[in-house]
Amino acid sequence: MNSGMILETKDLTIRFGGLTAINKVSTQIPEGKIVSIIGPNGAGKTTLFNLITGALAPTEGEILFEGRSLVGKTTEQIARIGLSRTFQNIRVCTRMSVLDNVMISIQRVPSYNIFAALLRLPDVRRADKLAREQAMEYLRLLGIERYASAAAGSLPYGAQRRLEIARAIATKPKLLLLDEPAAGMNNEECSELVDLIRSIHKSQKLTIMLIEHHMDVVMNLSDEIYVINLGSVLRHGLPEAIQSDPEVIRAYLGERRRRD
Ligand SMILES: Nc1ncnc2c1ncn2[C@@H]1O[C@H](COP(=O)(O)OP(=O)(O)OP(=O)(O)O)[C@@H](O)[C@H]1O
Ligand SMILES: [Mg+2]
To answer: What average pLDDT does this structure show over 188-204?
Structure first.
């Protein structure tokens, strides 16, 4: 990977019948940065994540991760390569405990350090203990350790969103895709989330792609922004330039300012 780009999409396109949901989208995501994807409802942002993570197959175009194509790989293979995501609609196992939710993620990645080591250990209980300790670490990192033994479905909404992030980073990804992590949060919760994302970005050495409608979250966190409109890239640039771009304001930001 000489380009410094961890992920690139080239002319990525997907059609659903007559609808071209993503139309020749080319992006370059620099390793170690936080890059946001913004745009109106229905613009194609989640569909872009679905393509990158293998949940949908492109009609045309290419997706390169560290220079290698992801097209044709399963979501499981892509997760093992080092991509992980959260969902716009929370997807935690609601009846399972918070701790077990994270342990499942840890066990999902067979190459995971402690498990490689554990294969040589006769004591299965010790393996379980180590996984538990590791899972607790992620809960601590996300500030939800007090809920460890509670059923995930019983958590307050904001804590469930944090649990989703804990699960996503427990697979030790290189690239984390967050789909509207601040959805439904008030200003105070948004500013806590900004701090949290910043801290995991640093401590886990992640590259992050962030879809978000809360502009304060986007402007606070992003190194770069892509604006998607009607399935195409309308603009790509630095936050300050995007914020004052007349066409972006016309297509998206103006509409949001009127509503907020
Ligand atoms: N599996 C699918 N089959 C058919 N149409 C789909 C499918 N997935 C997405 N679409 C359509 O593609 C378009 C883009 O949807 P997408 O969910 O990517 O938008 P979005 O930018 O994430 O919007 P929002 O901000 O509301 O989450 C929409 O018109 C949607 O109905
Ligand atoms: Mg979406």
So the answer is: 96
42 Cβ below 6 A of ligand 1:
yes
Which whole number is the average pLDDT over 156-182?
A: 95
Q: Using alpha carbons, list the distances in angstroms from residue 160 to 35, 153, 256.
A: 23, 8, 26
pLDDT at position 77 is 94
pLDDT at 135 over 80: yes
Domains, the chain: 1-82+173-260 (3.40.50.300), 91-170 (no CATH)
Are the beta carbons of 45 and 218 closer than 8 angstroms?
Answer: no
Q: Is the CB of 201 under 6 A from ligand 1?
A: no
Alpha helices in 122-186, H assignment, sequence order: 124-141, 157-169
Binding site membership of 45 for ligand 1 (Cβ less than 6 Å): yes
Ligand 1 mutation pick, 20, 45, 210, max ligand atoms within 8 A of CB: 45
Task: Identify the residue whose C-alpha is closest to ligand 1 atom 29.
Answer: 42
CA 51 to ligand 1 centroid distance, Å: 12
pLDDT of 112 > 50? The answer is no
For residue 160, what pLDDT band results from cuts at 50, 70 and 90? Answer: very high
Backbone angles phi, psi at 61, to 5 degrees: 100, 180
Give the C-alpha separation, 229 to 72, whole Å: 26
Closest CA to ligand 1's atom 8: 47
| Predicted pLDDT of residue 253 | 84
